[in-house]
Design a protein that fits this description.
The chain has 382 residues and is an alpha+beta fold. Helices cover 40% and strands 17% of the residues.
């Protein structure tokens, strides 16, 4: 009888295992490892993301119940204590670097002009237990962390992520983010820093953000307003020359302020360094910032980042990196079929059939045993 791959096996075919092994050797992740290899650890954590396993015990039981299928993956089961130790001690950089490699492969053939590249920056909070207070203590009885993400709304995927304690200022993290010269960056008040804005402006980046109510603008020109639009004013001017009595404001170039009335009736002060684009384009760019909020809601509802499987920073980084890799694999696998348009519906079908022997592009069909062609999928991907 011919062997048929499981849905999990087909997804794992999309992982560049040669690069993965190189990362393991580079970071010496398997040094002194006797039972659970880094590859087995990664597959166990990916299984948790795609199957919805909410605990280490559930991961152990789920893998044990599908031991016959794991043989064809080249791995065995994972005891929860061993997996917990691996997440606590193994280098999380292996998983973060694997995410970056997958991202580069996905970008092949989809390169856009820098003027068309738009990125959204924001963060979402994760609540932790008191066992994580050694690195994530926020207040006396609260422990939390923040996941900072740069999101590409056109490609519908994150291009960068990092996790820090909840009491670390957002702008401190933003200053460490990779910036692509010439791109457009949209962000909210959490990243309010004139020096960082000036560095983006120096890199020829277009920025779209909000102005605080108490930030004055020295107006030098009033622009004409479009008819029948929520834009109340469109002005060009300069920010204050000094941030305080002794410190010069590094953002010295002219900027543009739009006062826009939102659907809720609230008036927003939108700032940009683009003096030529139409007011509607700038307003639409800022409105698109909500797409990253939808992304946060999607991964929290469909992947496992709300309930953390470890309490150390390293364990949380591994779980988060695996979740981001799972997101990329789901988007990639969905692109190989046309029957399921909704990403949510596709993710739910993968979740329901993760260890079933079905073609991943025929999850809705009645003949699940038509063998897939993963080599063709890889050829289309690369």
């Amino acid at each position: 009888m011919r062997h048929h791959n499981t849905v999990l096996h087909q997804l794992l075919k999309l992982i560049p295992w040669t690069e993965f092994d190189r990362l393991v050797d580079e970071h010496k992740a398997d040094k002194h490892v006797r039972t659970l290899s880094t590859r087995s650890q990664f597959i166990a954590m990916l299984f948790a993301q795609l199957s919805g396993a909410a605990s280490l015990r559930e991961i152990e039981g789920g893998l044990q119940s599908h031991a016959a299928c794991l043989y064809h993956l080249g791995v065995g089961g994972a005891r929860r204590s061993t997996l917990a130790d691996a997440n606590r001690l193994r280098c999380a950089d292996v998983f973060c670097a694997l995410f970056a490699i997958l991202l580069k492969q996905l970008d092949r053939g989809q390169r856009r002009k820098l003027a068309d590249a738009t990125y959204l920056i924001d963060a979402t909070s994760l609540h932790l237990t008191k066992r994580a207070e050694s690195w994530a203590r926020y207040s006396t009885n609260v422990c939390s962390a923040k996941v900072h993400v740069i999101y590409d709304p056109n490609a519908d995927r994150p291009i960068y992520f990092s996790i820090h304690a909840g009491n670390v200022n957002d702008i401190t993290v933003a200053q460490q983010m990779p910036i692509q010269a010439g791109a457009t960056y949209v962000f909210d008040l959490g990243y309010y820093d004139f020096r960082w804005w000036a560095s983006l402006d120096d890199a020829d980046c277009r920025i779209v953000t909000r102005l605080k109510k108490n930030t004055p603008l020295r107006v030098i020109e009033e622009l004409a307003l479009p008819k029948d639009s929520p834009i109340l004013s469109d002005r060009i001017g300069f920010l204050p020359e000094r941030q305080c009595y002794t410190r010069k404001n590094p953002m010295q170039n002219a900027v543009r302020e739009l006062r826009v009335k939102a659907d809720t009736g609230k008036v927003l002060r939108i700032l940009t360094n683009d003096l030529d684009a139409t007011a509607e384009e700038i307003a639409d760019l800022y409105k698109s910032r909500w797409l990253i909020e939808l992304f946060f809601r999607w991964i929290k509802q469909n992947l496992k980042i709300r309930h953390l499987l470890g309490t150390t920073l390293n364990a949380v980084r591994i779980q988060l990196a695996t979740a981001m890799i799972a997101f990329l694999l789901l988007r990639l696998a969905q692109s190989f079929q046309s029957a399921i348009v909704s990403p949510l519906a596709f993710a739910r079908l993968v979740h329901a059939n993760i260890m079933h022997r079905r073609r991943i592009d025929r999850l809705l069909e009645h003949d699940p045993f038509d063998p897939p062609n993963p080599d063709q999928m890889l050829l289309q991907w690369t």
